[in-house]
Amino acid sequence: MLGLGLVIFGVSALAWYFSTKAGAAMLGQQVAAKADDIVNPLNTVWVLVAAFLVFFMQAGFMMLEAGFGRTREVSNVMLECIADTCLCGVLFWAFGFAFMFGTGNGFIGHTFFFLNDAPATYGSTGIAFLAFFLFQFAFADTCSTITSGAMVGRTAFGGDLVYSAAVSGFIYPIIGHWVWGPDGWLATMNTPFRDFAGSTVVHTIGGMIALAGAIALGPRIGRKFKRDGGGMPPGHDMILASLGGVILWFGWYGFNPGSTLSAMDFGGIGRVATNTTLAACAGGLVAMFYVYPRSHKWDTGITINGFLAGLVAITCPCYWVSPLGSLCIGAIAAVVMVCAVDFVEWLRVDDPIGAVAVHGACGIFGTLSLGLFATGQYGLPGPLGADTSIRVEGLFYGGGFKQLGVQALGSLAVTVATFSIALVVMYAVKSLGILRVSREIELGGIDIHEHGAPAYHPEFAYMGHSVIPSGESTRPVSPMSDTGVTVGAGD
Question: 5 burial class (0-12, 13-18, 19+ CB within 10 angstroms)?
Fold first, then answer.
């Protein structure tokens, strides 16, 4: 009790002293002198924690793609994601980060190659330079993984390495420089193009590369499209897909709130996290109810892609919109996603996980939604907190068409440039004969032919067979056999 009394007395005495003018002045001097010693390390730790969360999204992508794919290609999915991550890390260290975040011109950076001549902190962020590098590497890795989702089941592993090198080393960082680079042309316009956490830079770029890859590859053998009387073959494991989707949702709490780059902006972090959650919730529910009248079934796969659509769309405007706005954005994104899935199917483009619809179409919508739903009251995040002197205001909140027009221009430029370049890259890789596996390998199973072993024990669940109790039929049964949908050979 005596010790407690002394503590209370001490706290009271300090509070009284610092409430006086002399004490307040002294405290202000100490805070100013120690700001960098306290704020920069705190912000750096926050960015590192966010980077770890974003990196964990790789586990979500691996499970999502494997679950939506077939048993014959699960090992291939696992190794592609692992190899893409390792390749991306080396390339981003060598020159990807320099192209994207180095000073240069409006189109490309040309400093920090191999992280040489790096300062202690990056720019005006106060973040330790290598912590900022790690955070941005996790984003680059996400873009590369998005691409592989649309190319599941028929891409040769050698071809995957080649196009992934182009994505991580050149396409993503160079086009990303336009938006996030210190002197990118979209970032330095009179009314800057805004993309808080990557609806354009990560998701639209990833979605457009995925579309180019799926077009160059062609559909999986036996794939029959809806306009031809077929439909999308079901994923082999919705447990994996569901867990993968929720892990991605969890990782998004590093993706979006971490993009404040400031632990001091606690109000912004809380708002971004809440907006991220509400958009995902609205997206999942709307997608589930929107497709129910078609088949009178509660579709697990479309619900997963629904909340992912909401997450992708809110990634750009999450700092500048209200909770109500985020609900609207997530709900609209779900409808955009379903319509985009139908359109991709109508084009006869085989996208097994819906990467083009979820990341490409919803990335574009999310970018535009900033010009509609930004409230104009939150400013920009900074090392010491929010800078509310800068207004980001959308059409629905009295901002007119100015920001919306800039968002449309930036999204169009990135979309067209990415798709055009990616199409050239994919067809170049195809011309080398290394983009797609042979018919024999695809039918026999990529896991066996390219990686030496299946992901599952052959007696358990490989090539459409499963363990059957003794005495019962061993004929493989398609999970869609009762719908009249033709499933690809060997499914």
Answer: exposed
